[in-house]
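ugh ok so i messed up the first submission bc i forgot one of the chains. this is the corrected input, ALL of the components this time, i swear. 306 residues overall. if the numbers dont match what u have on ur side tell me asap before i send this to the collaborators (the ones from the other lab, u know who)
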Amino acid sequence: MMRLEGIHHITAITGNAQRNVDFYAGVLGLRLVKKTVNQDDPTVYHLFYADEAGSPGADLTFFEYPGAAPGVAGAGMVHRIAWRVSSPEAIDFWERRLLRHGVSSERVEGGLRFADPEGLAHELGVSSAEDSPLIADHPDVPADLALAGFDGARAYAGTPEAGYGLLEEALGFVPSDDGWEVRGDQRGGLWSYDTPPERPGRAGGGTVHHIAWASTMDDHEGWRRRVVKGGARPTEVIDRFWFYSIYFREPSGVLFEIATLGPGFTADEPLEHLGEKLVLPPRFEAEREQIEARLTPIENPRTAVR
Ligand code: ZN
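and heres the new structure output, hopefully the right one now
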């Protein structure tokens, strides 16, 4: 039976690539695994953070729109990203570390909530999932306390029932306590809806653009057929070079992607040097000079210590 392998990646928007890399690679200790441009608009950065190996399941990416005002999550948008940590000690560690970096956080039952500099909300929770932890190396973050990959994501939806058929019948989401579990042979992730605030959402810095679910290479075409049958309207399969993708909106308006577990980020860079140079998909290579001239250089806070 076909099963999605949890979350592949989550893509959000930033108005400031340097501040973004300082927060995610510096404070949160993720690894910048790919520095490239938005394939639909190569004048802006697309930054990918993940564990040390650049694995799906821990991959948070950002389109940079320089100077974009912070947005606000509303109906049809992901509003919080949940990450796994391995122990209550990790929650204590992150509360102290965030505070030391001027980031306020809030203790919630079993977890810790905070936001990035543009307001993108995160929650850390002690996970009982047996999936292998996806951890990045950072000199100030002991491996047993590090973020260990996505646990799930939450979106706002006024009438989430509209999407239940697509989620459960076409995509194989399995109802759980607080939403759904999406679990394959290797990994699982959680998906939940909350009642939206009254004010409408507005895309901008710190808002999520889309969430991608992971498929094996072999199942990808099959998923596209299932999505069509489920009543959504997927794009054709798009070659994203590091993976193949289809995109469609679920009935609440959240942009979903289904992306393949390969070829992966080592397709064009060796593992030891992921994310160090600006990488362009082959079709943009001829325009490298013009593309680089338009981008403001960014400094990876990890480079100095590696
Ligand atoms: Zn994507």
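quick check: The CA atoms of residues 53 and 272 lie 9 Å apart. that seems consistent at least. The domain at 7-304 is CATH 3.10.180.10 (2,3-Dihydroxybiphenyl 1,2-Dioxygenase; domain 1).
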